[in-house]
Design brief:
alpha+beta, 2 domains, 300 residues, 6 helices, Rossmann fold, binds S-adenosylmethionine, Hnrnp arginine n-methyltransferase1, 7-stranded antiparallel sheet, elongated
């Protein structure tokens, strides 16, 4: 039986987990991430109609609302962290974004006073872990539909695609071996990570569809390289704007997450590995704990 004290501290711990509460100095990294900020700028320029209405859920420092405000007539920038709301108000004013209205509120509970064309929401983390993108957008869509009816606005991002790859990770640090989860830049060579098989897509979603938290997949990999399968690499790509006429999308490839396995497996080309994934979007990193086993041996 859990006491009220334990329940309260568990809820408080969850609130303070990175992702639920992102300190201001961490926002500099987001602003400074050219792959992220540049892709959002391009997508917002392409998707927001001239003179339109836009909502941003989780505005942070306000940069995405600023981009939207360059084309839209009005932008509601919703942020629930009072410190960030204060900073964003000041920054938006300094940047002349006088058509962006800061709303201090929980985005899962707030709806715009009138229908909007576009909803921007970047509560994203690799694996869709940690942050509540799915929960917030599911609640927003329901509240919006109740208040304004359909159709729903266009979402930025429009879709998320996730893949997983068996890898051998070098966890030797000057002779000290420490297998820990870590993040890895997907845009640069990673010589200490050896891909043992091609990545496989384990999860796809379109934000205009009904959203579910549970992410569940079973799949097999045919090993292509000899090595020690001691980690899985999670690859998350967000399609910020899908442009069928141009046959392309504006994408943001997030940092990879590399998760060590409790029981590494020495593999050879031709071995078959079964991976079973089951976790909830928005849950802590540790909830990504797939079951990995060899189900077929190449001839030895
Ligand atoms: C990853 S940051 C992105 C910030 C900003 N959109 C950007 O792109 O730089 C997510 C932001 O969403 C805010 N947030 C998280 N949950 C929220 C909620 N339920 N309602 C409103 N804001 C929320 C966080 O405080 C944080 O500022």
């Amino acid at each position: 039986m859990t006491t009220q004290y334990e329940e309260t501290t568990a809820a408080r711990r969850h609130e303070l987990e990175l992702g639920q509460f992102i300190p201001l100095h961490y926002h500099f990294n987001m602003l400074n991430d050219v792959h992220r900020t540049g892709a959002f700028e391009e997508a917002i320029d392409l998707v927001v109609p001239e003179g339109g209405r836009v909502v941003e859920l989780g505005g942070g420092t306000g940069i995405l609302s600023f981009f939207a405000g360059r084309r839209a007539a009005h932008v509601w920038c919703v942020e629930r962290n009072p410190e960030l709301a204060t900073v964003a108000t000041q920054l938006l004013e300094e940047n002349g974004a006088d058509n962006v209205e800061l709303v201090l509120a929980d985005a899962a509970l707030w709806t715009p006073p009138e229908p909007v064309d576009v909803v921007v929401c970047e509560m994203l983390h690799v694996g869709l872990l940690r942050e509540k993108q799915i929960q917030v957008l599911a609640a927003f869509a329901e509240n919006y539909f109740e208040r304004h009816g359909g159709p729903l606005p266009r979402f930025v991002p429009e879709a998320t695609v996730q893949a997983v790859q068996p890898v051998e990770q070098d966890y030797d640090f000057h002779g000290y071996v420490a297998s820990t989860p870590f993040f890895q830049d997907g845009n640069v060579e990673q010589p200490r990570t050896l891909g043992l098989a091609d990545p496989s897509v384990y999860h796809e979603l379109l934000y205009e569809n009904e959203l579910t938290e549970r992410i569940c997949w079973d799949g097999t990999f045919t090993i292509a390289e000899r090595g020690n399968l001691n980690a899985l690499r999670v690859i998350t790509k967000n399609l910020l704007a899908i442009l069928p006429q141009e046959g392309r999308s504006v994408d943001w490839l997030m940092n990879y997450l590399v998760v060590p396995l409790a029981h590494p497996i020495n593999v050879q080309p031709g071995d078959t590995i079964h991976v079973s994934i089951d976790y909830d979007a928005g849950a802590p990193l540790a909830s990504f704990a797939p079951d990995v086993k060899r189900v077929g041996f190449a001839p030895r």
